[in-house]
Design a protein that fits this description.
Pfam families: YmaF (PF12788)
Strand content: over 45%
Protein name: YmaF family protein
Number of domains: 1
Radius of gyration: 17 Å
Structural class: mainly beta
Largest sheet: 5 strands, antiparallel
InterPro entries: YmaF
Order of helices and strands: EEEEEEEEEEEEE
Organism: Paenibacillus beijingensis
Number of strands: 13
């Protein structure tokens, strides 16, 4: 089964030995797609908190949808955590565009094993 995908490739300057270019997908199966930036700070547990930032996975534009997200937190107190999940449905901005709510608990880690709670809203959509 073939699915038509369109987009563009940006070549790097070659300074990163693991990636020589990035692929930006602008449509999947003829439909425009978009993503959202997200960032925040976890709850304060075991004497510290963590920062996280990322970009959601792509989703179809123009229909009700959710996004998957994934990020690794900042290193604090000698460890990191993983933030991952699925956003809530799209919430429209009055002037156009939309955002999503997200919340959850990080993975368990640390010399005294623990997790952190996080919640927030994504930024406005990026893409088509």
């Amino acid at each position: 089964m073939e699915i038509p995908v369109s987009g563009f490739v940006v070549h790097s300057d070659g300074s990163d030995p693991l990636h020589s270019h990035k692929l930006y997908i602008t449509s999947w199966d003829g439909r425009p797609v978009h993503e959202h930036p997200f960032s925040g700070m976890t709850s304060f547990n075991n004497g510290h908190s963590h920062y996280y930032a990322g970009t959601t996975e792509l989703a179809e534009s123009g229909v009700q949808h959710v996004h998957q997200y994934y990020a690794v937190t900042s290193m604090n107190d000698g460890h990191t955590h993983i933030v991952r999940g699925t956003t809530g449905p799209a919430v429209s901005f009055p002037g156009g565009g939309h955002y999503h709510y997200f919340e959850g608990f990080t993975t368990v880690n640390g010399r005294f094993p623990h997790s952190h709670m996080y919640r927030g809203t994504t930024g406005n959509e990026i893409g088509s």
